[in-house]
Amino acid sequence: MPKRRELVAQIKELAGRYGASARPMRQGKHEIWECEGLTFPIPRHREIAEGTAQAIMRKLTEHLVGRRGEDA
Fold first, then answer.
1. In whole angstroms, what is the distance from residue 35 CA to residue 51 CA?
2. What sign does the dihedral 51-55-58-60 (CA atoms) show?
3. Percent of the chain with pLDDT over 70
4. Does domain 4-71 bear CATH number 3.30.920?
5. If you write DSSP's letter for every residue of 35-72 in order, what string do you get?
6. What integer is the mean pLDDT of 21-36?
7. Which value, in Å, is the radius of gyration of the alpha carbons in the chain?
8. Where are the domains of the chain?
9. Interstrand relation of 30-35 and 22-26 (parallel, antiparallel or unpaired)
10. Are 4 and 48 in contact (CB under 8 A)?
């Protein structure tokens, strides 16, 4: 299971590769993050289930790749 801080670092690094920024918008049981119009929750646990982390990264990657295609 990845640590939450590692997932956050991966999200910021991925967004940076596409010239975007990812940032938390609000908090509760989950932190709601925003990146280029996509919002997604990140659980507020020290360790995040591997499947959850992979799903977040896959969703963000698909969104950023799709936005790059729109710009072309």
1. 20
2. negative
3. 94
4. yes
5. ETTEEEEEE-SSB--HHHHHHHHHHHHHHHHHHHHHH-
6. 93
7. 12
8. 4-71
9. antiparallel
10. yes
